[in-house]
Amino acid sequence: MEKVNTRHSISRILLLLLVVLFSFSQNLIAQEEAASAEQEQSAEGGDQEAAVAATGGDAAAGKELFNSLCASCHKRYKRSTGPALNGVTDRRETDWLYRWIKNSQAMIAEGDPEAVAIYEEFNQTAMTPFPQLSNEDIDNILAYVEQPKPEPQAQAQIPGDGGKSSGSGVSNDIILGVLAFVLLLLIVVLVLVNKTLNRFATASGVELPVTEKRKPIWKAFVENQFLVLVTSVFLLLAGGYFAYGYLMQVGVDQGYQPVQPIHYSHRIHAGDNEIDCKYCHSSARVSKTSGIPSLNVCMNCHKSISEVADASNPNSSVTEEYSKEFYDGEIQKLYEATGWDPATQSYTGETKPVKWVRIHNLPDFAYFNHSQHVSVAGVACQECHGPVEEMEVMYQYSPLTMGWCINCHRETNVKMEGNEYYEKIHDELSKKYGVETLTAAQMGALECGKCHY
Amino acid sequence: MKRLFNIGLLLVSASLAVGCFNKDDRNYQYFPNMYESVGYEAYGSYETFENSQEAKLPVEGTIPRGWKPYGYEDSNDGYQNAKANLSNPLPYTEDNVNEGKALYTIYCAICHGDKGDGKGTLSQREKILGIPAYNDAGRAITEGSVYHVMYYGLNTMGSYAAQISEKERWQINHYVMDLKRQLNGDPKREFVSEEEAELNTLVENTDATEEMSAEEHREDNHAAETHEEETTEGEQENTEVN
User: Average of pLDDT values for A125-150?
Assistant: First the structure.
């Protein structure tokens, strides 16, 4: 064996660079995952609100009562279904408040001018009577209500967090860029050094070892027919493999993750808050399509939830990547689309459609029925749609190819329990196949006409 | 130098291959005729329509099959009226209550809690506050008031008429009243057996007012019959093939 020519090192460095490039693209993803895991942990914090006892009542006890009885319609510092309650003791007599809270309807019927005025101001919305509250309870509630609005201490923290998050995203890119630049510089330096050394050598008359001409390797290769045969077979096989792989993924949208007009986080709704999939996609139970919820479904909750909890709240879903300001802005987009005016708590009537981008789409020649799978078969949504409750941005989890459908039909047993429709056919088929449980395929779920007609 | 060029080419093409995968766009499609159909896709966007929105409300005055008018208006009077006069038309069978429980868990429990005490996940996480328990004395809910609120919504609670059908609302209604009983510690209500329930509906069907539900019933029967026919035919084919 001869010594390998040193001048080939440049190409080897380039190869190394290629390897580095690929390995870094992997690292980057891993880093992001680790960072997001950290964020979730650090999101825990304490409720900083201190119970300050105000005029003649226990604010802590009042908070409990307020949250369980009043908070559905009243907020302390913001108009909701009813008026904002902070400062109510300045506006009204305490005795009047006692009577009003215990039975407001009776006061309106009596014709109390103040009572009638507030009733009219809030579109004749009747306040639920609370006969179970004692005067002491009401004092406690009022004490809680009259606590001054806490200054947002976390305010200074949040923009910092936001900056840090975007900073870490950029810094990754910068580090990569710098590394690439340094490597490039090294290559240039090597080439230059090589050149100058050669020039010095010729100038100072040093004899460079001249390698004798060998037979070029490609000539040797061509002459060896066996090698040529093996290589061409290998190349053909490899080419076929990759060509097949390429053709089979045409039209498959697995991983498709478009940017939606409103950043709706399934992670927050289905994951953190454990809202059932079928709450919003209610037609999946009873119809062919799962349905995109109309905006009134969003407003079921977002009438009362106009902003997300900030990072100091233990129930907060805010991450470093997506700040509270970002999510609040997205809720505002919902209000714009539905024409909801949070200030007056009413609809303006000016609506505009939200142009969601469809992700899962079967071509027209394939029939798929959601209710058949969700209600009859009892298949969990996650079987096909993946861990939706962890997805910040929705993407297509499954390939939705025919092979994928068939595979599941071969492996999944039909849910027979409590389904009279299947009783007779199950008895006969299980006898025919000699099995206890039938797969969907044995019930005929592989017949062409079941999905293509 | 040629070798250098080749490797450079490899490098460029490799980085292109890595960089060109774009998850914001759909993949290429081969003969997309049936992917992009001539007919309008559900929720599609087409210029023909107002706001280019394919999803539209039904024409005004359209009545879905089997729909029955709800005779109470969306106001305080309507609420009080429904609270006093409306009652659940579905028989109190075990099936109906179980069905109601399953639906309750999807649509109601997230706020009102599995036990109906107003401590659902959203309430515990302090997202939506002030959710009353079903045995709240001031509200004193009845079958009628529960249905009325499900139909129209009340204050911060929205209407659920779009998400659950009439029958499903009454099934949930049974379960909600059951939860109220449990919270109050009242004795359980006896289930009506299926046969009794059928008898009752037969008697009710003679009333002119219940004609609609009778028709529905007949339709159901008819549907069941055709199903049976289909299965027997299918079995015949099967045996012939074998």
Answer: 78
pLDDT-based confidence at residue A13 (cuts at 50, 70, 90): low
Contact residues for B24 (Cβ-Cβ < 8 A; gap 6+): A257, A258, A259
Q: Which residues in chain B touch residue A421, judged by CB atoms under 8 angstroms apart?
A: 227
Report whether A351 contacts A337 (CB < 8 A): yes
Give burial (CB, 10 Å; 0-12/13-18/19+) of A355.
middle
Q: How far A130 CA sits from the closest chain B CA (Å)?
A: 5
Domains of chain B, by residue range, sit at 91-184
Question: Where does residue B39 rank: exposed (0-12), middle (13-18), buried (19+ CB within 10 A)?
Answer: exposed
C-alpha closest to that of A451 among A410, A392, A382, A402: A402
Q: Identify the CA nearest to A343 among candidates A148, A79, A99, A115.
A: A79
DSSP state for residue A374 in the 8-state scheme: I
The Cα–Cα gap between A109 and A385 comes to: 55
In terms of DSSP bridges, do strands A340-341 and A346-347 run parallel, antiparallel, or are they unpaired? antiparallel
C-alpha distance from A151 to closest chain B C-alpha (Å):
20
Task: Give the pLDDT of residue A385.
Answer: 93
Q: Which two tokens stand for residue A206?
A: 């040093």
Q: Measured between beta carbons, which residues in chain A are less than 8 angstroms from residue B163?
A: 279, 282, 297
Cβ-contact B11, A14 below 8 angstroms: yes
pLDDT reading at A156 higher than 80: no
Domain B91-184 class, CATH top level? mainly alpha
List all residues of chain A from 116 to 135 with a beta carbon under 8 Å from chain B.
Answer: 124-126, 128-132
pTM for the complete prediction? 0.66
| 31-90 in chain A: CB under 8 A from chain B | 66-74, 80-81
How does B170-190 read in b/e, with b if 16+ C-beta sit within 10 Å? bbbbbbbbbbbbebeeeeeee
**How do residues A269-320 score in pLDDT, each as one tens digit?**
998 888 999 999 998 999 888 888 888 899 888 988 888 887 777 778 788 8
Q: Contact A132/B51, CB-based, under 8 Å?
A: no
Q: Which residues contact A345 (CB under 8 A, 6 or more apart)?
A: A79, A80, A81, A303
Closest CA to A273 of B110, B131, B132: B110
For residue B13, pLDDT beyond 70: no
The C-alpha of B156 sits at a distance from chain A's nearest C-alpha, in angstroms, of: 6
User: pLDDT digits over A359-409, tens only?
Assistant: 888 888 889 999 989 988 888 999 999 999 989 999 999 998 899 999 999
**For residue A109, what is the enclosing H or E element?**
helix A104-110
Tell me, what's the pLDDT at B238? 37
DSSP 8-class letter at B236: H
- pLDDT tens figures, A213-258: 788 888 888 888 899 999 999 999 999 999 999 988 888 888 888 8
Task: Indicate the SS3 state at residue A379.
Answer: coil
3 state SS for A274-335: CCCHHHHCHHHCCCCCCCCCCHHHHHHHHCCCCCCCCCCCCCCCCCCCCCHHHHHHHHHHHH
pLDDT at residue A166 is higher than 50:
no
ipTM: 0.73
Question: What is the Cα–Cα distance from A374 to A379, expressed in whole angstroms?
Answer: 5
Average pLDDT of every residue of chain A: 78
**What CA–CA distance (Å, rounded) separates A255 from A253?**
6
- The type of residue at A62 is G
pLDDT tens, A170-189?
688 899 999 999 999 999 99
